[in-house]
Structure formats: structure tokens, C-alpha cells
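>> received
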Amino acid sequence: MLLAPTRCPVKLVQPYAEVPDAAPISTSAAARPTRLQVQAWPAARLIAVAEKKHAASSQAPPALYTAAQADAGKLAFQANCAVCHGPTLEGRAGPALKGPTFATPQAHFSVGDVFTIVSQNMPASAPGTLQHDDYVSIMSFLLQQNGYPAGDTALTFDSAGKSKVKLVYHRAPSS
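>> returned
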């Protein structure tokens, strides 16, 4: 496919796709093309490359909470957070709290960062007023909804606040 010369928006697809280098251009005036030859990549190919690179660089997320904590967190979330963040964490007046746009690697958030924001600033109508166990349960629910597995060790208020584990969305495996 021949296109008019333009700057290739490589930054838009890096690091998800390997953009082929342009063919070398001859410096002689007679051989210099007036158009660049660009290889078009279908969206499905870009997505497949992105998922392959993500899978290759990703390790299984750590288990930071128990299933019972996530179950309690769902109830605490519904009672204290859903009015602003939506019943399925999709966002309303407040931002979405799950998915690749919330827990993106580019944000460089850790579990401790998000927990500190939640425990000191939420609920918006009465910041920092929930019981410590409620904040821990809600954080467990957020982790569960962002693809972190439950484990045998309970998350605590102190361990959540100090956690350096990166908070990155992990899509649930297809069944």
C-alpha cells in the first residue's frame, strides 16, 4: 500500500507492536520516491501482538488476601462505595475501579498506593471513617476484581498500606 509521506505514529503502538523499519531510501534525486511504502497492520494483529508481549512479560499475580476477605469486601463495597463507583466497579461519579484503564502499568501504582488513597479519602462523604477491617475487605475485593487470586494469608491494614506489589489489571483466564 502506498501512502503520502507522513510521520509514523510509532509511539501509539509501542511497546505493543514491532513496527517494521522503513525500506532504505536512495539519496540520488532520480531514485528518491515521492511516497513511502508503509505496511498496514490490521487491528487484530496489533491486539494479538500486545497480548503475546503482555503474557510473556507477566507473571501470575500474587495472592494477597483470602476469599473470605473478598466476599466481605463485596458487601462493604456495595454499602459504602457503589453509589459513586457503580455496583460492578464500572464507575459513575467516581472512577472505575477495575480493568485495564484503572490498573494500568503506566500508572505505576502499588497496592499500598491505592490502599492509602482509599483508606484516607473514602468514602467521599466521610473520608477515613470506616473500620480498618472494612478498608482491608474492600481492598481485597478490588484485588479480586482486578485478577489477583485469593490465598491462605489474610491481608492486614498494615500490610496493605505498606505493599509494594504493583497493582495491574490481570484479565481472568478464558474458560
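>> The mean pLDDT is 80.
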